Amino acid sequence: MNGGGPTSEKSYAFALKIIEVWKDLQYSKKEYVLSRQLLRSGTSIGANVEEASAGLSRADFAAKLGIASREARETRYWLRLLRDSRYLETTVAGSMLRDCEELIRLLSASVKSLQSSLNVNRRPRPRTRKSGHRQLNT
Fold it and tell me: Please, where are the H alpha helices in the chain?
């Protein structure tokens, strides 16, 4: 539906940063469980944005962006947890959280706009009589 726009570019750049953070946590801090969760959710954002661009319909596009938005929120959670548990330096966490918040804003606005346009375009179905039932004249 939508090619490599700003959300696609930003989510890809964010995924690259997530990979760098994951490497540092794995090799320097020997933290494996939380960093794996961060890697999974943080790289999934861009993957879902990319998949959304191949959506078959506006509804499919909105659904995939919705998944990306939820993954971004999960990533924010893992970043905060890693920061507050002192596995991630405050400056690194702050920069990553700002990038993540920007993605959340972009994705949320896109999903909201798409859902709104889908609801406007949705027309109520006309009511029809069920076959096999006769209307009684009273």
Answer: 6-27, 33-52, 58-84, 90-121
Angle at 76 (CA atoms; ends 75, 80), nearest 5 degrees: 115
Over the stretch 63-122, which tens digit does the pLDDT of each residue have?
999 999 999 999 999 999 999 999 999 999 999 999 999 999 999 999 998 888 877 666
The CATH architecture to which 6-120 belongs is Up-down Bundle (1.20)
What's residue 126's pLDDT? 59
| CA dihedral (69, 55, 13, 116) positive or negative | negative
Residues, the chain: 138
pTM: 0.82
Rama region for 70: left / alpha / beta (φ>0; ψ in -120 to 50; rest): alpha
The answer to whether the CB of 26 falls within 8 A of the CB of 42 is: no
